[in-house]
Amino acid sequence: MKLTRGDKVFQTFNYVFLFAAAATMLFPLLQLLAVSFSSPIAADSKQVFLLPVEFTTATWKHVLQNAELWRSFGITVYITVAGTVLSMLFSVLTAYPLAHKDFLLKRPVMLGIIVTMIFNAPMIPFFLTVRELGMMNSLWALILPGIIGTFNMIIIRTFFMGLPKELDDSARIDGCSDAGILFRIYLPLSKPVLATVSLFYAVGYWNTFSRAVLFIRDPEKWPLQMKLRAYLTSPEELASVNMFLGDYDFNTTTLKAATILFATIPIVLVYPYLQKYFVKGSMLGSLKE
Amino acid sequence: MAEWMRNRTAPESRILANMRKHWILYLMILPGILYYIVFKYVPLAGSVIAFQDFQIFKGIGGSEWVGLENFQYIFSYQDFYTVLRNTAVIAFYQLVFGFPAPIILALLFNEVRLMLAKRFVQSLFYLPHFLSWVVVGGIVFELLSSQGVINAVREWLGLEQILFMQEQKYFRSIVVISAIWKDVGWGTIIYLAAIAGINPNLYEAAVMDGANRWKQTMHITLPTMFPTILVLFLLNIGNFLELGFDQIYNLLTPMTYSVGDIIETYVYRAGVLQGQYSVTTTIGLFQSIIGFALLWIFNRMARKTEQGLW
């Protein structure tokens, strides 16, 4: 195709704009990384720009020795693993009947679920319900009240519905039960979509915040995001030493930068896998539904 | 045929037969149904405390019914108007600037011919969606602080430093820009799916007719995206006043309450922390009613030109 002069100008502009905007997506994290490896004086005098100035690992040593931070990290790992497994179990078990051609309650149940997407319960009755169930200060409050993500469940259901019906029929002739079809045929064929949805759930659990704000009052049970928030609002606790009494190679600026990254790095590590899946077609089709 | 007739006449026995044959399906879906009842429908029904003087130790059964008293109370209450105005203004900005952003970005992605460049740029744009608002809030505070990189640039340009997060006039812009930054890339996915479904023959025919890229975009790409845009717009309208607790909570400081305190952050403070359950539920219910009313109105308008949500 022949490009006109206008096309060429536009193309150039478009590349410059997109690359510049994409750079801003990564820039803040890289900047914080540079600050976290810089000396406190350099960080506070605005000398750091993408590269550490007066390189030091003191900040990271201090952050990585913080037992409370690791405890919150452990809690978050725990709810991420347990929550993702339970969420996948609940979602698959709900999606399969809703994709099954012989399940009579398919339409009413589906309607009932979609209604909850339009009518969201206000915060307070939701809070009171979970509290009535005795889940205050329990890690269950971070898992059960959101165990099925309706969107995620519908992605799985749409994928199941797209599997060829002949598979069902031939399996049934071979004596396979409904459960057998799910576990021996559907699930092995759905690995990519199950992986994608698992990663969505895992990221959701890793980033759990508002439920922790509502339900977890005991600081010893705070997940990582809550702990991070507490440290960001009162960074002196993060320092945990009297900055005036000694000569330290870190300060609250560098500590905050490192702590933000501490809570982010696992996401950045799984991100390449994450995006490999969700960009693929299987996801796109189901989102349209 | 005979069996079908029998089924028509006795639906109960049809369900019973279905249950007997496929009992495992009913068993499988039971936990899911319980989840939706306990954590979605029960709290929805619990909204009735908006019409009560709800006392936690008396419960819904024992608390006094007060009719619309709570609604009268919130409408006579100055704080409510402040919070409602903040919510509506920020929501309006989000709609005007935040809603078109992923549409425009998807169109720009679509013009990138080098697949490798496209994939690279896209994967950077999707990244912030996966960061929590605590992290993004922390990033925003750090970059905009007096030691932050933005003020470093200002100093370098010879400008005075600005404490962005403490000044009321910047708060709403920061909310809108940070929301776009976080989710604009993610938002393109659904539009790119719509674009991917366009028949390439349409473009070829347009080229034959002498249409340039701009005209192809305006007359083929955008019209094909329109149904998706409309559906997303309607869903957006239905959640118009629900800005998201996480974002505002993590950007708000007492210095910016007057412009940034929204319904959700207010309800959290007055309801969860101070125990004013009935009044805050009333505010939440009011928010839902406005959302649904807007959805209903815009859906009617949409049906006149295109398909609505229902």
Automatic annotation (TrEMBL), chain A:
Residues 73-271 form the ABC transmembrane type-1 domain. The chain crosses the membrane at residues 12-30, 75-96, 108-128, 140-160, 181-203, 255-274. The keyword S-adenosyl-L-methionine does not apply. Signal peptide: none annotated. CDD domains: TM_PBP2. GO terms for cellular component: plasma membrane. This is Carbohydrate ABC transporter permease. It comes from Paenibacillus soyae.
From TrEMBL, chain B:
It comes from the Bacteria. Belongs to the binding-protein-dependent transport system permease family. The chain crosses the membrane at residues 23-42, 90-109, 130-150, 170-199, 220-241, 277-298. This is ABC transporter permease subunit. It is found in: Cell membrane. Keywords: Cell membrane, Membrane, Transmembrane, Transmembrane helix, Transport. Signal peptide: none annotated. Residues 84-298 form the ABC transmembrane type-1 domain. SUPFAM superfamilies: MetI-like. It is a multi-pass membrane protein. One of its GO terms (cellular component) is plasma membrane. It comes from Paenibacillus soyae. PROSITE patterns: ABC_TM1 (PS50928). The keyword Manganese does not apply. GO terms for biological process: transmembrane transport. InterPro entries: MetI-like, MetI-like_sf, UgpAE/MalFG_permease. The keyword Membrane applies. Pfam families: BPD_transp_1 (PF00528).
